[in-house]
Amino acid sequence: MTKLPVNRSQWLALALITLLSAALLFSPVAGWFEGPQRLSALLVMAGLVLFATGAIPEFVSALLVLTLAMLLSLAPAEVVFSGLTSTACWLIVSGLVIGIAISETGLAQRVSDLFTRHLDTSYTRLIAGIVVIGILLGFVMPSSVGRIVLFIPIALTIAHSCGFEPGSNGQKAVGLAAAFGSHLPTFAILPANVPNMIMIGSAEKIHGWSPMFGEYLLLHFPVLGILKAILLVVVLVRLYPDNPKPVPQAGSSRPFNFTESRLMVILLVTLGFWLTDTWHQISAAWIGLAAATLLLMPGVGMISTQSFNQKVNISSILVVAGLLGIAGLINHQNISGILGGHLLGWLPLEPGRDFANFLTLSLTATATGMVTTLAGIPATLTPLAGLMSEMTGFSLEAVLMTQVLGFSTIIFTYQSVPLMMAMPLAGIPMRHAARLCLILAALTIVILFPLDYLWWKWLGWI
């Protein structure tokens, strides 16, 4: 008799799907959904479990979700396959092409040499240095996408210069440090991420208030920036232990050649357009796609067809399409609206219970991001801020600022387009990002949320 080869993650996924399905079908929650909404909720839940556990390859999970959504007629094709037409998909394609160019021309090695000699003395220093560089980029580049596209190839070259082979613990840790360091702590910097700007815009439009840069930085950066970065470094060093073995680099002082100079011009022009997108209103995806197309043009670019075919992995695009398809299905079936309508009345909010109210608001924002993605948190919660202010006794400004704790705490990778884009660029399976998200989210809720409450209390916000 043949024994089925079922591994531990697959058993875990099967158990979680069974338990959550039973809860969704036989608990009071079952009455919230009808017909296609219930099937959609089941499919969304099963898909998220498969992505989170890595029970089957991520691109197979993506195809499974997309196929079942179509076979069960849960949403039109333009919703289910919206990921393939989204800016996120084309940001990944353009990011992969730009990354190939930065690596193959030697530009990544040149920049890497500037940093490696200062970072390769210890493993912890290396990972911490990568995270710090990502945070510093957040002060000068107001786009996680731009930071990740430019920094990931350089970080991987630094990993190679430290003797880390592809697929090694060190290589994974450096790639994850560059991706998460460029993204998570920078939510504490006002213009550095899209959800920040959506929150500011909606708060100003609805409530007539928006925070100042220094005010926002003082409130959030000490805990959600510095302490979260420290947690990130500690977790990466523990999850992916390794030791740098520096590889001698020759010719680091050679002058720029024509190919490198041409690439620098293209990158600087691209970066200029990214930094001024509020003026010209051209999406970062189409700016990146223009740069990628130029880099692929015969006689102009510097990437061969062979390199493109070998290094642009279609499975990564399918993964993003599946995750964004889940987000589209959630919105199409109004799952987030149903959950929000039922749960708001259940929130244990009461004036005078400051710590409980703070945690409830922060966890509500975090949970909202699971069903709306990060950008949906301010869009969903900002209109409710006035009511929440009355229920808690907090100022309107304090209630609005608790959203930052929510969209800086990522539980599933599909919530964040920059993280989904970063994993293919770094060549790291999505399950590693999923595991890191879950661990960091748990540590953030248990450690950083209470510390943030004390910090807010000391500053007089509560």
What's the number of helices? 23
Largest sheet: none
- Please estimate the helix content: over 70%
Outline the low-pLDDT stretches.
Answer: none
Integer-rounded radius of gyration: 22 Å
Query: Mean pLDDT, rounded to whole units?
Result: 81
Strands, total number: 0
Strand content: under 5%
GO cellular component, one term: plasma membrane
InterPro entries: SLC13A/DASS (IPR001898)
GO molecular function, one term: transmembrane transporter activity
Protein name: Sodium:sulfate symporter transmembrane region
Q: Please, could you describe this protein's structure?
A:
By secondary structure, the chain is an all-alpha fold. The protein folds into 2 domains: 87-193 and 212-316, no CATH class; 334-417 and 428-459. The protein is 72% helix and 0% strand. It contains 23 helices and no strands. It has helices spanning 8-26, 36-53, 58-71, 77-80, 87-104, 107-119, 123-140, 144-161, 169-181, 194-207, 213-239, 258-275, 277-280, 284-296, 305-311, 314-332, 335-343, 354-372, 376-381, 385-392, 396-407, 417-426, 430-459. α2 (36-53) packs antiparallel against α16 (314-332) and α16 (314-332) runs antiparallel to α22 (417-426). It is globular, with a radius of gyration of 22 Å. The N and C termini lie far apart (65 Å). The relative contact order is 0.14.
